[in-house]
Amino acid sequence: MIIKLTEKQEDELRVKVFKALSDPIRLEIIRYLKKVNRGVSCGEIGEIVKMSKSAGSYHFKILREAGLILTRKQSREKYVSLNYDIFDKYVTKFLDSL
Questions:
Q1: Which residues pair with 70 in a beta bridge?
Q2: Mind listing the pLDDT tens digit of every residue in the chain (98 residues)?
Q3: Which stretches make up the HTH arsR-type domain (predicted)?
């Protein structure tokens, strides 16, 4: 099902996308997800980026709300992956620059 956003909703999403991309830690998370090109546990990313669980939760929330990552839960673990559709729509070629 395709949901059509209003112009105002599109602008709000753009603001969230650029806010999410304005932090070096979140860029590091995105860079790692691009490099491995698969769903990765939040714990694995936390170890790679060297951040606490609470800091990780905060950064994943910002990325998820911007639509830049997809989250799936399997058992007790959460896995995240890049949402290429949002990158393609709002920041075309951005991933190539990382």
A1: 81
A2: 567 889 999 899 999 999 999 999 999 999 999 999 999 999 999 999 999 989 999 999 999 999 999 999 988 888 999 999 999 988 988 888 87
A3: 6-98
What's the total number of domains in the chain? 1
3 found inside a domain: no
Domain-embedded: residue 24:
yes
Q: Residue 55 sits in a domain of what CATH number?
A: 1.10.10.10
